[in-house]
Amino acid sequence: MEKIKKEEENGNGIGIKSGSGNGNKARRSKTEKQVYIINKEQTKFFVDASGDKQSLDLIFDLLARCNQKTKGREITFKDICLLALPKITDKDIERLQEVSLSEMEKVQRALEEFNQKNGTNLELGEFLVKKLNIN
């Protein structure tokens, strides 16, 4: 009997469900895929830029430039986000997906691409030996 692990809500409206399991804390298998569930009832989103001074400076700079005016209400970060979101292209989404990969995920992807291109079925160790020219 297959069970689906309890959905983990990580605060950004995306829950992560892991594949089958018996509820024990066990490692995910390499072939198991994560399924993302979006909480469409979420109405608030929080941005924590405290750990990234460059992003924080960019936000403050944009807000200051937007509010250098004599009339109208104050422009907020929400206004900037809602204006910018529709302008995100498929290319931007690909870049976001790329920067979300860990180093090992990039190596694993390179291995899969190599195996597919060359019609081989190398393991990770064999692939690294071949790529690094180690004898």
In short:
With 135 residues, this protein is mainly alpha-helical. The chain has three domains: 1-45, no CATH class; 53-87, no CATH class; 100-135, no CATH class.
Write up what this structure looks like:
- The protein has 135 residues and is mostly helical.
- The protein folds into three domains: 1-45, no CATH class; 53-87, no CATH class; 100-135, no CATH class.
- The protein is 42% helix and 10% strand.
- It is built from five helices and five strands.
- The protein has a three-stranded antiparallel β-sheet, with no helix packed on it. A two-stranded antiparallel ribbon has the order 1-4.
- A hairpin with a 4-residue loop joins strand 2 (8-9) and strand 3.
- The longest helix has 16 residues, at 103-118.
- Mean pLDDT is 83; it is low at 1-11.
